[in-house]
Amino acid sequence: MVVFGTRIPPVFSLLIWIALWEIVGQLDLAFILPPFSSVMQELVLLIQRNDFQAAAWLTFQSFVIGMTISIVFGVSIGFIMGTSKIANGVLGMWVNIFASAPLSSLVPILMLLFGLGQTTIVVTVVLFSTWIIALDTYAGVRHISPSLVEMGRSFGASRFQMLTKILFWAALPEILAGVRMGLIRAVKGIVIGQLLVSVVALGRLFRTFSDNFQFEQFWALTVTLFIFALLFSSAIGWLEQRVEYYAKARI
Amino acid sequence: MSVSAALDNSPKAATDDIVEVRNITKYYSPDVHALSNVNLSFPRGQMTTLLGPSGCGKTTLLKIIAGLLEPTEGDVLVNGKQVHGTGPERAFVFQDFALLPWATVLRNVAFGMELTKQDKREREDRARHYINEVGLAGFENKYPHELSGGMRQRVGLARALAVNSDVLLMDEPFSAVDEQTRRKFQEDLLALLANENKTVIFVTHSIEEAVYVSDQIVMLSPRPGRIHSIIRPEFSRDADPDEIRRDKNYLDTVEAIWADLRKYLD
Amino acid sequence: MSVSAALDNSPKAATDDIVEVRNITKYYSPDVHALSNVNLSFPRGQMTTLLGPSGCGKTTLLKIIAGLLEPTEGDVLVNGKQVHGTGPERAFVFQDFALLPWATVLRNVAFGMELTKQDKREREDRARHYINEVGLAGFENKYPHELSGGMRQRVGLARALAVNSDVLLMDEPFSAVDEQTRRKFQEDLLALLANENKTVIFVTHSIEEAVYVSDQIVMLSPRPGRIHSIIRPEFSRDADPDEIRRDKNYLDTVEAIWADLRKYLD
Amino acid sequence: MSDAPSIATTPPMPMADRETLLGIPIMRVYQGLSIVLVFVAWEIAGLVPISIAFPTFTGTMRALFEMLVDGRLFYAYAETLKPLVVGIVISGTFGVIIGIAMGLNKTAQWFWEPIFVVLQASPVAALIPLITYAYGIGLTAKTVAVIMLAAPIIVLNTYKAVRHASPSLIEMCRSFQGTRFQEIWMVIVPNAAPVIFAGLRLGVAAGFIGVILAELLITPTGVGDLISYNRSIADYEYMYAAVFTVILFSAILVGFLETVEVNYFRPEKKKGQ
Amino acid sequence: GIPAAAQDKGTMRVAFGDVPGGEMVNFMIAVARAAERGVKVETSYLQSEDLAAQAIVSGQADIGVGTPYALIQKVNAPIRMFYQLSMLRFNPVVNGDKYQAWTDLDGADVAVHGRGSGTEAIMQLMAKENGVTYNSVSYVPGSGVRAGALLQGRIDVSIVDYERRRLLEREAPEKFIFLPLPEIKATDEALYANREWLESESEAVAILVEELIKTWREINADPAAIVALREKYNVLPDIEQIEVDELVPAFTDGVSIDLFPNNGGSAESVVEDFTFFTTSGTLEGDAADFKVEDYWYLAPVDAAVDKLGAL
Ligand SMILES: Nc1ncnc2c1ncn2[C@@H]1O[C@H](COP(=O)(O)OP(=O)(O)OP(=O)(O)O)[C@@H](O)[C@H]1O
Ligand SMILES: Nc1ncnc2c1ncn2[C@@H]1O[C@H](COP(=O)(O)OP(=O)(O)OP(=O)(O)O)[C@@H](O)[C@H]1O
Ligand SMILES: [Mg+2]
Ligand SMILES: [Mg+2]
């Protein structure tokens, strides 16, 4: 948007929304919505709490482990689907079901199978992110220009060279897009899962805050999660931008 | 100009054919019959063009020669020996260039050698040489998306030249660049090939281009592709481009081919 | 053949120019200067081609004439009156065809009339007429994706003809179809236009095409596009295509233009 | 010019995807096998059992069948679908309108895009427990949960679709003197339709998650109630049967929407296949 | 902390079916004391009681908190309750603007915890006794959620725990009327575990049970001691300040209504449970047919009471 000849970047409209929030909060219009400023104060306190830090650290660790596993899984499944018709038919069916199913309803079952520790959270991350990574990788593999593959073959590339020197790089933009989507889904999955079973302190904090009408803290926790999700996904977005230039150049 | 009958190789060519195809038939599926019993010889050091209406099987034939497609029946011979699959004596130049978007011009040109694990230093020197040769000196560290279509095709050509194959296979190499660039490219290609001793097999839709660049033109009939006729344009290639384009033989050949092909169009 | 100096309109044309552009300058942004002070006249009933190196502003000029782009400076006159925006007297034929993928050939051809809310019955009759005219009878109920590139372009042409504009604007109408189809199309287009009294403004990269189809060729210099020269090929269009392509005037004109343009290529 | 003598050539083997087994396409056979495999694994895990709270596949199917027969399942889905349908209709209508506005108007885009991007990328489900305080425990609360999850994705997809409408089609419309309204209605919207529908499909999937969550977190009704009630009385077979129907239902729903889209909105696709 | 001298007497993993809060402080004090005697306790907090029960059944945790009568009866789970933590003390509550007494509730919309829950049982029992019929019974799990909905005016008739009763009285004094209940003698929360585990870890279980009884008795004697004890053992350091402030009044109230049994349950209390839970429909069958040892494992409690003397 341009005002008085200056271009105002879109993110600045968020400031308007925040201002609106502050006003609604100050006017005390809805008791579940305290002013943004007091939420921010609580946020500063929140991130100093031991139980929050422990929960955040545990979640973060599980995230890194879970995402690593689902990238390996997802990319492999995507490549297998992209290269074999049968695998595509069989795996594709399951991947599609899991990618669109309300997996949250499975989280209580996961707890049963994987215990009350970190494993369950890691599995949640994997369960929520693998499928979309697989689907995007598959799209990426299908998207690879056949002439690039033929080029590799005509210069005598081995299967391994083909995979590591051509196919992987050619599908990279989609893979990254998939990883970003998977990440967003995993954050959502963890939050939903924790609301449903609350193995880590995150879900517990949400419950405590809402049960005790501590809405400042509640929103502070929510905002923290939002920021975390946005930071994570913009980090990958930045990586995507770096490979975007050739994604655009592809035919 | 001589229009020889199909299958009847000119005696001179028969003595030294670098590539031969015998009884090639190709079905993509039971009801897609792309090529039917094609026999052809490609004389060493000459430029042969495959010409024909759209969908007649030109690309199919070229890919079979390259070893990228298996024929349903028939053999491909290189230097008299039957071959299966791709081989270092044949290099492909792609219509859509097939450059690695994430690699620089230098790495792209050296890529064929990278795959055969040649020493990095050596292959880059060689790549640089061919980058100069196709007139791209100074662009070594650019990425494909920073180049114009014509320049990208030159990178693809340099890559094929750099692996030092005897046979260059080109599938409509100029169709993705604009007309004026294309015309320039044709002239440059001829100049370049005059120095290198290459055999070129070239697919095009352009009758003028075919006649202008080739020693031998193979005309295919509509699907299933068969050899319709083989034409050897006969005019001196020593004249300058403009003169060639006014040459009576040149114009007659173009005209004869056009008269032949236009009946296949919708 | 006469190569007139830029800006110097031939006296005959001046008497009846259906479209005129005056002092057209176009900046896309302060540092993208696409056109610089272009003055041109387009004689009624004639075919004018815009020719020039890639990126010189041909498309920009055509869109300004069509009213799809606002010039930074200068005016467009149609029938002597200054115009702003698009108008029913000018119809565009798009390079990428611009057909509605969800509409049949019939609806696509009638679409211009649908927009001006003509009676359905009437506009479909008219559409059918032009579908016949461009040789697509029987394809009325097909969807664009079921047609070949050449057939799609014919649909785009029929759509432009159906609205009965005096001026047809064509931006590289044949660049998306293959060479042989294109050649056929050129001949068909000339035959078609011989019956309809249209003024055509045509952008192309192909020198042969420009010389073959046009009454007047406007050559633009590289960005910022200025008029480099205006050429009126002079040979009889009554001869058959093959003869025209051998005509000395034709060949000379092609050669002169090529000599001029090749210096702009990389 | 002589044609080569035509030698009788045998066509190649039929392609893999045309192969059939007893008249069923081979792909379906493999898919069926994989499903059987998963169910067998489930059955074995339930027989071991890996946990008392983990029923066998056959037990679950028996429970499912029973709930089908006595109508409990239908009643539950009728309950669940109420807020889902209302929520999807609301977020579909307003989502598409806002999305189109964003795609056509720079200021609208400036204002709405970041907030929807934030909402889409963030775990808004965290706010579901708050809904009770604002909207109580009834249909409204659940509808709000559906809207919260479904709207952002519908808006953003519509916006992107409109944004990326083919510029040459728009120019074509303008060159034939189409009005702005015609441009939007006859070119931009149909052109964007497939992506808008993809967005609606994703929105329905997200909304379904929303309604299930609301039923698990706000008040147990419908399928959520089947899950939590049966869990609380330790009828695990029924609980798993309910979870199973949730997954199955969403797969069927998504497939159904795809069919609707192809059949009614893009005739050329249907004809092409 | 655990004194270095204490030897390892085993580990127990406790799964709560609720988020940590003030009402758990007494239990955690007993746990801390057991820890001092060499028992290591790990705690996890799950979203609901039935999830916690599943965790015990599947071996993900050792000790659960709740009253898993239905679970034991339905799936014949080899789990047994072994310590009675608290008594069922619920508070039926109505919006004072609309209703004043049980007899007003004919045609009212009632919100209870869950289908087949003790809260529903109580509300249905009272309806029967007062000859009224509710218009609808809806299920809103979580006393906190019901309290919130009451405050918001979204529901008018419900039943909450004593903690939420205090909250309602604090947040909206005068607005709500708490309806009278006849005395109900049934367990609200008990500790339970796998029978086998109880036998194999008898030493650790004995220590825990002893400490529980001691702590319960201390608090029953002086509810205000809860604050000092919490500080001494650094129990639940992260709970909210509001909850800390509420500790003394809440425990004082609790003690006054006999919320915390002195002896950790007995065969007699179990029989009373049978009576209540069969009436409420949680258990199917006739109360007289139930056997204590099918549901409870009283050996540790009996031993501890013997050792400490019955009160
Ligand atoms: N992978 C494939 N599977 C099935 N049919 C194919 C395949 N590739 C090509 N065909 C069909 O085989 C025939 C020959 O195709 P080919 O690409 O060789 O023609 P072409 O002469 O190169 O055409 P063009 O001039 O359009 O490039 C065509 O009818 C085409 O539809
Ligand atoms: N929308 C735009 N914004 C900014 N610059 C533009 C835009 N459209 C075109 N240009 C620039 O203006 C110049 C003229 O463009 P135009 O498309 O008119 O050239 P052209 O002669 O049609 O080229 P070509 O032969 O490649 O079609 C080019 O340098 C181009 O990069
Ligand atoms: Mg081809
Ligand atoms: Mg252009």
TrEMBL record, chain A:
GO BP term, example: transmembrane transport
InterPro entries: MetI-like, MetI-like_sf
Protein name in the entry: ABC transporter permease subunit
Keyword Transport: yes
Keyword annotations of the record: Cell membrane, Membrane, Transmembrane, Transmembrane helix, Transport
Similarity comment: Belongs to the binding-protein-dependent transport system permease family.
One GO cellular component, as annotated: plasma membrane
Gene3D superfamilies for the chain: MetI-like
UniProtKB/TrEMBL annotation, chains B, C:
Domain ABC transporter: residue ranges: 19-247
Family: Belongs to the ABC transporter superfamily.
GO molecular function, a single term: ATP binding
Keyword Transport carried by entry: yes
Domain of life: Bacteria
Protein name: ABC transporter ATP-binding protein
Keywords, in A-Z order: ATP-binding, Nucleotide-binding, Transport
Pfam families, sorted: ABC_tran
Lyase among keywords: no
InterPro entries linked: AAA+_ATPase, ABC_transporter-like_ATP-bd, ABC_transporter-like_CS, ABC_transporter_ATP-bind, P-loop_NTPase
Organism: Parasedimentitalea marina
Automatic annotation (TrEMBL), chain D:
Protein's cellular compartments: Cell membrane
GO BP term, pick one: transmembrane transport
UniProt keyword annotation of Endoplasmic reticulum present: no
Record's GO cellular component terms: plasma membrane
KW Cell cycle (keyword) present: no
InterPro entries, per the entry: MetI-like, MetI-like_sf
One of the Pfam families matching this protein, by short name: BPD_transp_1
PROSITE patterns documented for this protein: ABC_TM1
Membrane topology: Multi-pass membrane protein
Boundaries of every ABC transmembrane type-1 domain copy: 77-257
Keywords assigned: Cell membrane, Membrane, Transmembrane, Transmembrane helix, Transport
Membrane-spanning intervals of the chain: 35-57, 84-104, 116-137, 143-162, 195-218, 238-260
Predominant localisation class: membrane
Source superkingdom: Bacteria
Entry-linked PANTHER family: ABC TRANSPORTER PERMEASE PROTEIN HI_0355-RELATED, ALKANE SULFONATE ABC TRANSPORTER-RELATED, MEMBRANE SUBUNIT
Family from the record: Belongs to the binding-protein-dependent transport system permease family.
Protein known as: ABC transporter permease
